[in-house]
């Protein structure tokens, strides 16, 4: 690794930590890697079919796709930091609402759509923009590390949820996810406002 890349990583590691945590705990990670753990308890409580529950993935994905251009505009207009600071608590709120959920299947879908709408600013669209702006010589490595956080979450989250749901129920599982969703907020507040490699 060249000295320029080492210096860049040494100076930009706070941004890298914030972006890695943000991707791992965002709307492109937590709902997707967790829903499988909730299928059995949701079937037991509400009597829904497995296919009906997993349709929530489609709702989340469709809303994320629709809002992506507008999200990109907001990031360009206000910067990654401001957008993420607003989106993180909004996304966490929707996960908390799921922990209190008492309703119909359509209401469940609505919660996932709301998670995408309010949490769009917690997706890799935002965090890779922040990393691209901070890193130049080490940009490829920084992006790889940022997105690796999602892979770690894909491995770690299901067994952790299995324990929490088994001991405390599915509502506690969504409450835990809401707490996870808030974790990147102080790192974003502290780290994403610095200078960039391009400006």
UniProtKB/TrEMBL annotation:
Keyword Disulfide bond listed: no
Gene3D superfamilies the record matches: MFS general substrate transporter like domains (1.20.1250.20)
Database matches in Pfam families: MFS_1
UniProt-listed PROSITE patterns: MFS, PROKAR_LIPOPROTEIN
Gene Ontology molecular function: transmembrane transporter activity
Domain Major facilitator superfamily (MFS) profile span(s) in chain numbering: 15-199
Keywords per UniProt: Membrane, Transmembrane, Transmembrane helix
Transmembrane domains' residue ranges: 12-33, 53-75, 82-101, 107-128, 140-166, 172-192
Entry coiled-coil feature ranges: none
InterPro entries: MFS, MFS_dom, MFS_trans_sf, Proton-linked_MCT
SUPFAM superfamilies: MFS general substrate transporter
Source organism superkingdom: Bacteria
Name of the molecule in the record: MFS transporter
Organism of derivation: Inquilinus limosus MP06
Lineage of origin: Bacteria, Pseudomonadati, Pseudomonadota, Alphaproteobacteria, Rhodospirillales
